[in-house]
Design a protein that fits this description.
With 298 residues, the chain is an alpha+beta fold. 35% of the residues lie in helices and 29% in strands. Bound molecules: cytidine-5'-monophosphate. Cytidine-5'-monophosphate binds next to strand 2 and helix 5.
């Protein structure tokens, strides 16, 4: 018997970052959209905890207990006083270390899959609590759709979205470490008065209306200067997408994946072709948003 869960990637249409807190984390106003690129996590009973991974980036995925999928299984097993003797297999399509919450997706997916396999009867609140312990972006991977995350980004309010948005994502030739990007943010803002992060009312209105032009005018990412500082070549990718007609071009989360908002599917294909031809990125994908969160598929 096994359970398979499908989990989406995310893009942040707003990532407002406050000053570093005493615990080293940053308060955020983080508007997440779940996008239609997915990892699938399959859990099967086994003699001991084991993680395997397939996909183009599989060699970059840690298979030990630092993997969020393994940590999720251990956390749930710990709570219910059982052993996490399972084989977790990750079919990975979300870029690794890309700023699209691929690791978080695997954590949320493994949690939901183990919960179903073991029949723990955990409530949604309990699962969300474990997600928040695993990482700031993990609760959103479980919930999907669109949400505002505050605190570390883990305290979610679900947002209504009035339509489908068409996106193009350009994956870079190497990853970026999220802690390193936050450290660079701290360095770049040293001595400056960093305002409290707040969600943009224009952006929330644009999402509610499903209006791509209004959304494009309102997107922002306070981590973008830090990501560009550590990975200057991303500026060329952003320019190539803008030149091809993207309504907005931004770094996804802590990067280095870049995200391009298109008016419609045809325009998304054109932007994708131009990005492929530009030679400024490794792979290019189109995807729609929002999409549902972690879902049991079989
Ligand atoms: O919560 P998560 O483990 O995903 O965070 C990874 C790293 O990103 C943290 O160790 C921290 O350096 C940084 N971070 C932060 N503020 C947040 C979220 C993450 O500084 N709100």
């Amino acid at each position: 018997m096994s359970v398979t869960v499908r989990v989406p990637a995310k893009v942040n249409v707003q990532l407002a970052v406050g000053a570093a807190r005493p615990d080293g984390f940053h308060d955020l106003a983080n508007v997440f959209l779940a996008v239609g690129l997915y990892d699938e996590i399959t859990v099967t009973p086994a003699d001991a905890l084991r993680v395997t991974c397939e996909g183009p980036d599989a060699h970059q995925v840690p298979l030990d207990e630092s993997n969020l999928a393994a940590r999720a299984a251990l956390a749930l097993a710990g709570r219910y006083g059982r052993r996490a003797d399972v084989h977790l297999h990750i079919a990975k399509d979300i870029p690794v270390a890309g700023g699209m919450a691929g690791g978080s997706a695997d954590g949320a997916g493994a949690l939901l899959a183990c919960d179903a396999l073991w029949g723990t009867g955990a409530s949604r609140e309990e699962l969300l609590e474990i997600c928040a312990e695993l990482g700031s972006d993990v609760p959103f991977s479980l919930v999907g759709g669109a949400a505002l995350g505050v605190g570390r980004g883990e305290r979610l309010t679900v947002l209504e979205v009035g339509g489908t948005f068409h996106w193009v994502f350009a994956m870079a030739g190497r990853g970026l470490s999220t802690p390193a990007v936050f450290r660079e943010f701290d360095r770049l803002t040293e001595g400056l008065d960093v305002p409290e992060p707040v969600a943009s009312p224009e952006l929330l209105r644009a999402l509610a209306k499903g209006d791509p032009d209004a959304l494009a005018a309102a997107v922002s990412n306070d981590l973008q200067p830090a990501a560009l500082s550590l990975f200057p070549e991303l500026a060329g990718t952003l320019a190539a997408g803008r030149d091809a007609g993207a309504l907005a071009a931004l770094v996804s989360g802590s990067g280095p994946t870049t995200a391009f908002l298109a008016r419609d599917p045809g325009s998304a294909e054109k932007i994708a072709d131009a990005l492929r031809a530009s030679g400024t990125c490794r792979t290019v994908r189109t995807a729609q948003a929002p999409t549902e969160g972690a879902t049991i598929v079989r």
